Amino acid sequence: MKSAPGKSWAILIACIVAFSCKKQDLRNSIVSENIVSHRLNSEQDLDVLLQQIGNSRIVLLGEASHGTAEYYQWRSAISKRLMQEKGFDFIAVEGEWADSYRVNNFIKGPRQDSFAAVNVLKQYDRWPTWMWGNYEMASLVTWMNNYNQSKPAGDKVGFYGLDVYCLWESTTELMPYLQGADSSVINAAQGVRQCFQPFSSDAQDYGYAVANASANCRVQTTNLWKAITGITGNGTAKNEAHFVMQQNALVALNAENYYRSSVTSYEDSWNIRDRHMAQTIRRLLEFHGPGSKIIVWEHNTHVGDARYTDMAAQGMVNVGQLAREEFGQENVFAVGFGSYQGTVIASGNWGGTIQRMNVPPAPANSWEGALHAISPSNKIILSKEIKDIPSLQQSIGHRAIGVVYNPNQEQGNYVPSIIPKRYDAFVFIDQTSALHPLGTSARREPPDTYPSGF
C-alpha cells in the first residue's frame, strides 16, 4: 500500500481497525461439534495448557483487543504459574522499553504495595495509556514485586518492553549511562537528540519531513549505535548497564527506520516493528543466559504466526512467525485469545477519549461464533486436537479489535486465519468485560501504530 506522502496518513487512519481495508472471507462453515474443548473455570483448569507448553522456552500470550479485562487476568494467571512451576524468568510486553524498564526495576526492588504499583504504571503516558496503565496490570506488578522478595538478585523475575516507538524517551534514558564516556560517544548521543529536536517528539512531523526530503536522522542514529557498540562490543552485552545502553540505542536506530517508512509503506513499517520486537526477544534471552525462558504479551496479530493469515500474501511477518523460524516450533508455544461478545475499552478515533464500548456477538460462521455454538462457556482449545478438522484447514474469520474501534463496522474486524497452524492453543472467554484503566493523562501522539492500533 503506497501513496503520496501528503495523503498517506489519511489512508492509514482509514484502515485503522483490524485490517479493514482487506476483503474478509467469512463464508466458511465450521462443524463446531467436532471441536474438542477443555473447560476453563478456575486456575486449576490451566493444567491442560501447562502440560502442552511442556519445555517450551518462549510462550506467546495473545489477546484479541488491548482493552479486555479477562485477557489480562488469564494471561496473569498463566504467567504466574509459568514463573512458579516452570521457571520462566521474565515477561516482555508490547510496550515501550524505557517505561517498562522502570517497571522492571520496581518489580526487582524492595517490597511495595499496590498503590506504588499504580504510580509506576502511570508513567505509561503515551496514548493509548490504558494498555499497560490499568488496574489489572497493577495487580500483576504488585504480585511480581512480592514474589521477588524471597529470591536472590540473580533469580528475580523481570519485566521488559519490546516496542520501538519511544525514540525520544530512549535517547533521554541513555544519557546518564554515558557519564565519563569518551566525548565522541556523548557527541553521537547529542547528535541524535539535536537532529530530532525540531520535531518536538512528534513522529508524524518527522515522517513528513523525511518524505519531503527536508530531514533525515538515519546517519545520527547509526553513528550512535556504532558508538555504543564500540563501548559494549557488537554482541549482546552481559553487563546490565551495557545491555540497557545497547537497547536504548537500538530503539533509536530502529524507531527512526520505522517512522521514516511509516508514511510510505504500511507493510515495511509493520515488518520493521515486528522484527525489532523479535530481535529484542532474542537479545533478552541471550542476556539472561542459555537456560532462560520468556513470556511474551502481545496482540494476537503479533503472536499468531502470520504465515497462516492473509498477512503473508502482503509480504508481512510477525513475532510469532519469526520466533518459530529462529528458535524452532518445538521451543515456541503460541496461545491466542478471543471472545464471543461483551465490552471493551477503546476509542472512536486516534488519540481520542477512552470509551467503554459494546462488542457485538460474533457471526456464526466465524471462529468465535463456532466456539460459542459448542457452548456459551469459557474453554481452552488445543491445536493438536483440532488440526484434522477439514473446515479448519481453510481460512476462518477471527476477530481482532484495535485501540480504535467501531462496533458498527464489525465486518472489517475479522482476520482470515488457519487457526490450528496460527496458534498452538486458544483461550476462549465467551462473555468479556472492559479493562479498568488508570486515570492517566496521555501525551499527544500521532497515529504511529498504524494500521490497526495493534
Question: How would you describe what is shown here?
Answer:
- The longest helix is centred in the middle third of the chain and has 23 residues, at 240-262.
- Helix 8 (183-196) packs antiparallel against helix 10 (218-232).
- It is globular, with a radius of gyration of 21 Å.
- The protein has helices at 5-14, 47-53, 69-86, 97-108, 114-121, 135-148, 167-174, 183-196, 203-211, 218-232, 240-262, 266-288, 300-303, 319-327, 367-374, 419-422, and strands at 38-39, 58-61, 90-93, 158-161, 294-297, 332-346, 355-359, 379-382, 396-399, 414-417, 425-432.
- The model is unreliable at 1-28 and 444-452 (pLDDT under 50).
- Helix content is 41%, strand content 13%.
- The chain is an alpha/beta fold and 454 residues long.
- It has 16 helices and eleven strands.
- It has one domain (5-432).
- The protein starts with a helix and ends in a 22-residue tail after the last strand.
- The strands form two sheets. Strands 1, 2, 3, 4, 5, 6, 7, 8 and 11 form a nine-stranded mixed beta sheet that branches. Strands 9-10 form a two-stranded antiparallel ribbon.
Main beta sheet: strand number and arrangement? Answer: 9 strands, mixed
Total strand count, please?
11
What is the subunit organization of this protein?
single chain
Kindly give the count of domains: 1
Count of helical stretches: 16
Question: What is the percentage of strand-forming residues?
Answer: 5-15%
